[in-house]
Amino acid sequence: MLRGLVFLAALLCRPPAGTAADTVERPFQGVTHIARVETEPRPRRIHIVEIDLSAAGIRLKLTPPGGKRETVRQTTLDFLKQERAQLGINAHFFLPFPSAETDVDLIGFAASEGKTFSAFETPVQSYAIVADAPALAFDSSNRAAIVHRDPAFDDGHHIRESVTVWTAVSGSAQIVTAGAKTIPRYLDGLVLDGLLRPGGPNAYSNAKSWYDVPQARSAAALTRDGRTLILLTVDVRNGSAGMSVGEVADMLIGEGAYDALNLDGGGSTTLAMEDPASHTPRLVNISSDNPRGRSVGSNLVVFAAPRGSAGR
Fold first, then answer.
1. Residue 104 belongs to what domain range?
2. Number of compact structural domains in the chain
3. Is residue 44 part of a domain?
4. Are 130 and 184 in contact (CB under 8 A)?
5. Residues in the chain, pLDDT under 70
């Protein structure tokens, strides 16, 4: 009954007929890829990947720590090739940026293969990234949860929840919370509980929010039962005009998301996938940075078994 209600809610939240066209494929066991083209409210090219975390062969890995800072920058496509994974998406915001430096620090909580190496923090870009932004964490059995900083510890490496963290990724904010859209607002004389601070390169405020700008976006979400990971990218090149973060949240809710995070977007937005027939890694979206995608601070890859196999 619950699945039926979730499916009905997803149908009701989908764009009206005639404004969207979906191409659906199931390239790997437990993986569904939806390529969506929309014409309203503006031209948009969107990719949605739904991953059954209980499917045989599913495994996750984040860029591990390395270099003189926290990680070494790498394109999503190169990390996918290196790991021989089947699917990859860019993840954390990172600093310094813009910069030609290859060694960077991630913004927010991060863990790879059981090692926590980046802490919850108060970022410099407080006009876009909330302090101690929640993270999406997985244990070694792919059990997933949204986790929060434990204020009892000063180092920012501890969480309040009873989760044995194997993989963890964070973004700018939690944009869906318990099935509701939760776009952060700016602290000002009227919004006393604002999580963002006005300012930044474009003087962002509640009247002109960083979250309202149509842009290339990346996001990650969980369904209510925590069994399905949903990844989303939208392009801002070649006839696609991007989305606001609120539009991303609405779409994720329509796909059954219960909790969701906004990941690094703009020129960082990248979705890469192995071709299931030729096993050749390729970019699925069109990067607004360069044809091979931007070198970013972290990537999340998914290992999946071929369809019809018993897993790995």
1. 2-34+53-303
2. 1
3. no
4. yes
5. 1-19, 310-312
